[in-house]
Amino acid sequence: MRGVTRAACLLASVVALSGCISMTPATYMVSPDTKSSLARFQGATLVVADIAGPATFEPMCRAVGKISVADDMTIGQFIARGFNDELKFAGLYAANGVKLTGTVTKAAFSSSALIVNGYWDLAITLQSSNGQSVAIENRYDFDAGFIGASACNNTSRALGPAVQQLVQKTVNDPRFAALVR
Amino acid sequence: MKYRTHAALLVAALLAAGCAITQTVKPVSVAGITDLCVKRNSRVMMNDFLPELTSQIGKKGIHTTIYDGERPASCKYSLDYTANWRWDMAMYLVFAEINVYDNGLLIGQATYDAHAGGGRPDKFGPTAGKLRGLIDQLFARS
């Protein structure tokens, strides 16, 4: 019994000494590379109206807290924001342009792959108002770190570049051109 | 045997709670910025922060204009920031984030986070020095 009490005290002390844990929400940053890739569609106009889902997503990171997204967006809304930001940056965005809708078919992460590495697995299907559709999936690897709080914080932040890479992979896919026509 | 359990528990607690200061910079992806509008954050209580921020950006050859409220239409490039301090026998910078935008689209970001660095002595020190590390990397391509 004394052992359990001691252990509990030790645990409480360490957590108290280690400070507060906060999760930084993911934000989306536009990419010059994606802008270059979109340049070949100059003259076309597009909008990503809605990306739904995912149907299942486990946001809890270790025992630290939930992964958070800026403005409390869902993963689907965050990916749609990413596409639209890139379209605006490339000068292709128009609310009355070709309309793309989509679904997140997979969203999963690890903050402890090979102990200190992490990844985000994201998969989407995009459908154009012209009837064409495309399915894309991507794994984004990053250094998560060893310590729980910072590993989860890094995982939360990594959603931004993970979506950036997914958007870039999508627009670089030869099938993307069929959505734009 | 009992010590092993305690040691394992200690490691597990440290893994969950952490003890780190992180600095993450995604440099501004646009080169040749000469003018930058800086949105004043009235919730940042340290009066010296904004002058220090604009001074350091000025040293990068970028002219800054401070504004309140909505971004003026004439400002293609803009910057917003937040910063918090904490008391632990002395004030120290616990969190700072600087975002740079091109017509409202995020093109660069720098973050300093000492929330989980409570036990580290290097959490102390002048804010100017911590800011310099962020600004130098943020505008490395400018």
Question: What do these coordinates show?
Answer:
- The complex is a heterodimer of chains A (181) and B (142).
- Chain A has helices spanning 2-17, 32-38, 75-89, 148-172, 176-180, and strands at 46-52, 60-61, 65-66, 98-113, 117-128, 133-143.
- Chain A is of the alpha+beta class.
- In chain A, α2 (32-38) runs parallel beside α4 (148-172).
- The longest helix of chain A has 25 residues, at 148-172.
- By secondary structure, chain B is of the alpha/beta class.
- In chain B, α2 runs parallel beside α3 (127-138).
- The mean pLDDT of chain B is 85.
For the biggest β-sheet of chain A, the strand order reads 1-4-5-6
Ends of chain A: how far apart?
72 Å
How much helicity do the residues of chain A have? 25-40%
Using CB atoms under 8 Å apart, which protein chain pair has the greatest interface?
A-B, 36 and 33 residues
Structural class of chain B: alpha/beta
What proportion strand of chain B?
Answer: 25-35%
What can be said about the biggest beta sheet of chain A?
Answer: 4 strands, mixed
Q: Going across the major beta sheet of chain B, what is the strand order?
A: 1-6-5-4-2-3
Major β-sheet annotation of chain B: 6 strands, mixed
Topology:
The complex is a heterodimer of chains A (181) and B (142).
Chain A lengths: L1 H16 L14 H7 L7 E7 L7 E2 L3 E2 L8 H15 L8 E16 L3 E12 L4 E11 L4 H25 L3 H5 L1
Parallel strand pairs in A: 1-4
Antiparallel strand pairs in A: 2-3, 4-5, 5-6
Helix pairs in contact in A: 2-4
Chain B lengths: L1 H16 L4 E5 L8 E5 L9 H10 L4 E5 L9 E11 L3 E12 L2 E9 L13 H12 L4
Helix pairs in contact in B: 2-3
